[in-house]
Amino acid sequence: MDASSTPASSLGATRRMTATVPIYTVTLFLSAFLLFGIQPMFAKMVLPKLGGSPGVWSVAMVFFQTVLLAGYGYAHWLVSRFTVRRAALVHIALMVAVLLVGLPIGIAAGFERPPQEGETLWLIALFAASVGLPFFAVAANGPLLQAWFARSGHPRAADPYFLYAASNIGSFLALIAYPFLVEPVLTLSLQSHAWSWGFGLLLAAIAACAGLAIGGGENGVAATRELAAPAAVTGRQKLGWVALAFVPSGLLVAVTAHLSTDVASVPLLWVVPLALFLLTFVIVFQRRPVLRHGWMLTAQLVFVAALTLKMLFQPGIGWGGELALHLGLFFTTAMVAHGELARRRPDAANLTGFYLWMSLGGVLGGLFCGLLAPLLFNSVVEYPILIIAGVLCRPAFTGIRISRPVRAGLVGLAFIGLFAIIVTEQQRSDSVRSFFGVNRITESPDGRFRILVHGSTVHGAQRLRNDDDSLVTGRPEALSYYFTGGGIADGIDAVRRARGGTLQAVAAIGLGTGSLACQTRPGENWTFFEIDPQVARMATDPARFSFMSHCAPGARIVLGDARLTLSDAAPDSLDLIVVDAFSSDAIPIHLMTTEAIGLYLSKLKPNGAILFHISNRNMDLGPVVTATAHARGLSTWIRASNPTPELMLQRKFSPHVAVVARKAEDVGLSPGEGWIRQEGPGTARAWRDDYADVISAIWRKLAR
């Protein structure tokens, strides 16, 4: 029979089946792209509320994982209780409601200022009120669309898990595209509107997928739209799904914290572990994975053994080697755990339940590392704990097959070594952990200096012994970036000279060890603004650092984010604002925007000045300060870092500093002292609360 005699209904069904896989694939890709695009976008909206703290990212991750679980539960409810037609009507109605009342995305009213305590609960409420419903609606699409495809009558409907790989490709590309393509080009408001348009397109695509599923069932092509009764799933199976999802999810948070805390302070470093995490899902849910499961089992043991030896004997392999080692272990462990998940996936009738339990494991892993671990441990101890848990994900321990004796021996040795590391870390008294990260107090190998390190960045040092090994007594000497003759001290002195030798009122954003207090003069009124209460406790404890107690015992310390607490200062009351707030190796972006400078100007006297400490190993922030200050009609002077071996031996780090003021006579800076006045706005774009081009700042640093 030729095509001309083929019944129209059969031709329509054939065309429908041909279009089914591409349409479902594109829809799941778009859904995942939006799902992962909304997370960094909204997190950036929230960052100005809490100082760019690492805790914001942890809470955000836990929140989004929890809402993802809720979305999966909602999808499971729709699939198990309704036909495809009714489920589609319910879900499309939800999507329409979000489109009408939940978009565009922005900060909900009533969350203008965070509390002094309970930041975590406040952040969760903020996320829920602002972005909870849109994220929930999109989160449900992954399992829901796969379940609809399983009921579409398509020849491949019996095994719809290949669509999960397509979904994770969308997530992966969204993760990569945001910092490199979206953030440098679009403001947050434009990103929000673009996301709304994408949501509308997704709504249309979901309606098309529902039509294909309903039409396929009605025409009886290859299968009916409803599946046979699902096979029984045991509690042991569910527990296995939860455990195998728990480990990689928790390890993702732990390894990211460890890399940024103890290995390297590199912008966007968090993207790499998350990208590898998503890539493992893409690989293991392929019909023929490009990386075999057996290869990953062997590679995991190699990396576990290598890391155990590295942590026990501390050989020097450089930060590049450290990154390769930790990321290799994370990737192979995630491949092992997710590979076991893929091998244990149920039939299509239990698909949504499988994703629900898997998502529960992900939430629990995130909760453990993101919220509980900072309360339980004083350093990132959860990392070696989860490495051990990752080894337990191997089939030798999950009952599928028995390990060989040599492998079992290696695993046993790794357990012993990692357990010793955990015990040692927990006994440390020099590490203080908070919502804002891990601060560690150490002493130099020669015992001459006590040092405060946040992440991989030194935030202050105090001399304990003189060169002749005698104990230091009396007023401590300002060291690290704050030494007399350095850019920060000279910048303060220049502003001081322009006012006749005394600064009546100064606001210093960022406390650290309190070293800057030893650049104060009698009769000056200094106020320090610090976001981390633990840092304030360390700086005011004479047994740890004595800068504050000796040099400025009467100085006031205000806790909270400076963008908010500084707003309480009286207008036109300050001579100088020193912006010295580090988040590991970077000034929090929200303290460098045009809106931030506008706040500073409202608190400064007409002849006041702002000093920015912009030292950074990875970004060139001078052009950013210049362009942002120019947008406010201000002038900028920059003094570059000029380190010497002699200074470094004395723990004196030459800082990169920018001074901003209305007029040259307000600061009295001399080019002969290394200060260079910046002409015009320069080549960088001004940063605003809704726009910051971090990638360009990194490229400028690399180019230099």
Short synopsis of the structure:
By secondary structure, this protein is α/β, with parallel strands linked by helices.
Q: What would you say this structure looks like, in words?
A:
There is one protein chain. By secondary structure, the protein is α/β, with parallel strands linked by helices. It is built from 23 helices and twelve strands. It has helices at 8-46, 54-81, 84-102, 119-139, 141-150, 162-182, 188-218, 235-263, 271-284, 293-313, 318-343, 351-376, 382-392, 395-398, 405-426, 487-497, 533-539, 547-551, 562-565, 594-603, 622-631, 645-649, 694-703, and strands spanning 431-434, 437-443, 449-454, 457-463, 505-509, 525-530, 556-559, 574-579, 604-613, 635-639, 657-661, 675-678. The strands form two sheets. An eight-stranded mixed beta sheet has the order 7-6-5-8-9-11-10-12, with helices on both faces. Strands 1-2-3-4 form a four-stranded antiparallel beta sheet, covered by helices on one side. Helix 1 packs antiparallel against helix 7 and helix 13 (382-392) runs antiparallel to helix 15. The chain is globular, with a radius of gyration of 29 Å. The termini are far apart. The model is unreliable at 1-6 and 218-225 (pLDDT under 50).
User: What shape does the CA trace take?
Assistant: globular
Number of helices: 23
Strand content: 5-15%
Which whole number gives the mean pLDDT? 84
Portion in helices:
40-55%
Point out poorly predicted stretches: 1-6, 218-225
Query: What is the terminal separation in angstroms?
Result: 72 Å
Strand order of the largest sheet: 7-6-5-8-9-11-10-12
Q: Rg to the nearest angstrom?
A: 29 Å
Biggest beta sheet summary: 8 strands, mixed
The count of DSSP E runs of length 2 or more, i.e. the number of strands, is 12
| Structural class determined from secondary elements | alpha/beta
